[in-house]
């Protein structure tokens, strides 16, 4: 009996293990793991750091479900804390040390150590090192856009156009939207037709209807129109992501309606346009560029002024052009010509 229950437990454990493995592998198929490196010299806020940025890359774009792994390639201890650090100017002029918001926080990362964080929500997440708060970075998490169109519940739409009867059954509408997967900022073309819900015959032109678009529970568009032979069409561009309902109502003056639903996804191109800007490190190359622009020319001008002040008069008296000028201008006591 003991052996039997032991076998039963073993069987359950094996099944549970297989389930876990299949879940993990299916997640693995969807999610990526991306790397951010803390470069050598990141601990140094001055011009003599070889680091071009404090985190490399300082802004990384991923998708919901992806994991970011930070690895410390510097020679000092660093950490990763969500929130906003400080600018280098603040480092010099204030005692501000940044504000961690607690969304995620690593322990101390010794040289060579790594730490990972999985992002399950879309958005822009700023982070910094609390030991060196001028070290700022950001993770931009984009929605995972499906390759197939769905209704608002997530069920895949396989047949176009989508057909729906009004609740009272008197009318039927069909609607197709193109592209089928809706992104913000992308022009959608809605194409639709109306039929008699009982006979299935096409509704002739001139029958009034109303198209209303709801998104995230709010009405965002409404138009009165009349049916046309060959069907109606309309362009629409969504500004916001979220569930959307296309409603045809008051067809032929009736009181019923037919609803179609889908999802609008954040356009990754739009997200790229709003990427956060992270101040670069004050690295050696930047220091040289700074010196070339702000230090070398003023020093050169100062040197010239000094040389001119000290030896200017002797240089002027020795210049051949000046001698020629003197001989060319007649002396004041020369009046031969008058
Ligand atoms: Cu640090």
Overall description:
This protein is α+β, with helices and mostly antiparallel strands. It has three domains: 1-30; 31-143 and 275-288, Cupredoxins -  blue copper proteins (Immunoglobulin-like); 162-265, Immunoglobulin-like, CATH 2.60.40. The protein contains five helices and 17 strands. It has helices spanning 2-30, 88-93, 268-273, 284-318, 320-328; strands spanning 33-38, 59-63, 67-72, 81-84, 99-105, 114-118, 123-128, 136-142, 162-165, 171-178, 182-183, 187-196, 208-215, 218-226, 232-237, 242-249, 257-265. The protein has a five-stranded mixed sheet. It has a five-stranded mixed sheet with strand order 11-17-16-13-14, with no helix packed on it. It has a four-stranded antiparallel sheet with strand order 9-10-12-15, with no helix packed on it. Strand 9 (162-165) and strand 10 form a beta hairpin. The longest helix has 35 residues, at 284-318. It is elongated. The termini are far apart. Residues 18-29, 322-332 and 334-338 have low confidence and may be disordered.
What brief labels describe this structure?
alpha+beta, disordered C terminus, Immunoglobulin-like, five-stranded mixed beta sheet, binds copper (II) ion
Give the SSE map:
Layout: H1 2-30, E1 33-38, E2 59-63, E3 67-72, E4 81-84, H2 88-93, E5 99-105, E6 114-118, E7 123-128, E8 136-142, E9 162-165, E10 171-178, E11 182-183, E12 187-196, E13 208-215, E14 218-226, E15 232-237, E16 242-249, E17 257-265, H3 268-273, H4 284-318, H5 320-328
The structure holds copper (II) ion.
């Amino acid at each position: 009996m003991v052996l039997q229950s032991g076998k039963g437990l073993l069987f359950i454990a094996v099944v549970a293990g297989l389930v876990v493995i299949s879940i993990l592998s299916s997640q693995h198929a969807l999610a990526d793991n991306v790397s951010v490196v803390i470069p050598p010299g990141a601990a140094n806020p001055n011009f003599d750091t070889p680091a071009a940025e404090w985190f490399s890359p300082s802004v990384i774009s991923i998708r919901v479900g992806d994991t970011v792994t930070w690895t410390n390639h510097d020679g000092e201890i660093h950490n990763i804390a969500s929130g906003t650090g400080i600018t280098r100017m603040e480092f010099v002029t204030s005692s501000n040390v940044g504000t961690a918001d607690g969304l995620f926080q690593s322990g101390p990362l010794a040289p060579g150590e790594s730490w990972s964080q999985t992002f399950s929500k879309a958005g822009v997440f700023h982070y910094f090192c609390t030991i060196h708060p001028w070290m700022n970075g950001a993770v931009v998490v984009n929605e995972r856009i499906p390759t197939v169109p769905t209704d608002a519940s997530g069920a895949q739409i396989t047949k176009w156009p989508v057909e729906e009867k009004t609740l009272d059954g008197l009318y039927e509408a069909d609607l197709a939207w193109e592209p089928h997967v809706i992104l913000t900022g992308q022009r959608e073309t809605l194409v639709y037709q109306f039929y008699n819900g009982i006979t299935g015959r096409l509704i002739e032109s001139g029958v009034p209807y109303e198209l209303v678009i709801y998104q995230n529970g709010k009405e965002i568009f409404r138009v009165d129109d009349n049916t046309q032979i060959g069907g109606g069409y309309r362009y629409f561009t969504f500004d916001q992501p979220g569930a959307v309902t296309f409603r045809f109502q008051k067809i032929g003056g009736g009181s019923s309606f037919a609803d179609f639903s889908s999802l609008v996804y954040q356009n990754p191109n739009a997200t790229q346009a709003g990427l956060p800007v992270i101040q670069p490190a004050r690295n050696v190359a930047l220091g040289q560029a700074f010196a070339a622009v702000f230090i070398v020319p003023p020093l050169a001008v100062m040197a010239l002024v000094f040389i001119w002040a000290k030896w200017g008069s002797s240089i002027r008296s020795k210049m051949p052009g000046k001698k020629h000028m003197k001989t060319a201008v007649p002396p004041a006591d020369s009046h031969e010509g008058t």
